[in-house]
């Protein structure tokens, strides 16, 4: 497994995403969303990854919690607290205040047990002490295990660049970086191409791809089977979010 040789134990944060207290040391939540909307910089729908995928779409020029783009009878997105979408939706961008710490989840729940491709375009616009723009997805659910994967984009001190980190978990309380890089202050394009059959994820950031192997952890009572986006203690903007799950 190719990973960065540091472990991050995150504790003391009150956000609970699914069990997003995962970031606080328990099993966590995920981020499940798919947007077919062209983003502000003209990036349209991603390439087809397989025939007849299950899709989730969040279109940020309208309230994503009101949309049922995949026609399954359930709106594709819901705020975790079942409230209204915080922040501002304008020009195809969701500007979310980091003070809210309110996750937007895909609906309904999904095991993500087959090839799953997530495309997210986001940035952190106001730095805070913890994280920034976050995309989270729990994948590879079985009766006994699952694999949390999450992407953090955080503005650096000084505001001239952003740190981009993709994490997995080696146990319910320990997050370990799989991939780290830096980007400018614009929107960062991230793709996670997950193959649960071999516990692998190909991580693409701004067009550059590297393969990695992720860990699965004990499921216990975790049932946070969704994908999520949120601003975690720092104002953030989300342009697109797409999830494709192959049959």
What does this structure look like?
The protein has 247 residues and is an all-beta fold. It has a single domain, classed as Jelly Rolls (Sandwich), CATH 2.60.120. 0% of the residues lie in helices and 41% in strands. Strand 12 and strand 13 form a beta hairpin.
Helicity, as a percent range: under 10%
The unreliable regions are 1-43
CATH architecture: Sandwich
How far the N terminus sits from the C terminus, by CA atoms, comes to 27 Å
What is the count of DSSP helices, taking H or I runs of 4+ residues? 0
When the domains are counted, the total is: 1
Q: Which percent band covers the strand fraction? A: 35-45%
Key structural traits:
mainly beta, Jelly Rolls, 0% helix, 41% strand
Quick structural summary:
The chain is mostly beta strands and 247 residues long.
Map the helices and strands.
Layout: E1 54-58, E2 77-79, E3 88-90, E4 93-96, E5 104-106, E6 116-124, E7 133-139, E8 145-155, E9 162-171, E10 174-183, E11 188-195, E12 200-205, E13 208-213, E14 217-218, E15 227-231, E16 236-245
Antiparallel strand pairs: 1-16, 2-5, 3-4, 4-16, 5-15, 6-11, 6-16, 7-8, 7-15, 8-9, 8-14, 9-10, 11-12, 12-13
């Amino acid at each position: 497994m190719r990973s960065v040789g540091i472990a991050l134990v995150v504790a003391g944060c009150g956000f609970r995403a699914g069990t997003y207290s995962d970031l606080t040391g328990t099993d966590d939540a995920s981020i499940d969303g798919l947007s077919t909307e062209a983003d502000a910089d003209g990036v349209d729908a991603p390439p087809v990854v397989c025939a007849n995928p299950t899709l989730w779409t969040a279109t940020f020029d309208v309230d994503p919690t009101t949309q049922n783009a995949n026609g399954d009878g359930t709106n594709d997105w819901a705020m975790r607290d079942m409230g209204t979408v915080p922040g501002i939706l304008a020009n195809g961008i969701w500007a979310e205040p980091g003070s809210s710490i309110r996750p937007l989840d895909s609906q309904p729940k999904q095991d993500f047990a087959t090839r799953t491709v997530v495309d997210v375009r986001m940035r952190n616009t106001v730095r805070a002490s913890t994280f920034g723009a976050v995309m989270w997805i729990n994948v590879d659910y079985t009766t006994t295990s699952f694999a949390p994967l999450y992407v953090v984009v955080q503005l650096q001190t000084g505001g001239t660049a952003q740190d981009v980190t993709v994490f997995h978990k080696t146990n319910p309380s320990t997050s370990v970086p799989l991939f780290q890089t830096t980007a400018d202050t614009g929107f960062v394009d991230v793709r996670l191409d997950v193959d649960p059959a071999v516990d692998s994820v190909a991580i693409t950031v701004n067009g550059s791809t590297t393969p990695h192997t992720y860990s699965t952890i004990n499921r216990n009572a975790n049932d946070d089977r969704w994908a999520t986006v949120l601003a975690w203690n720092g104002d953030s903007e989300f342009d697109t979010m797409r999830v494709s799950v192959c049959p």
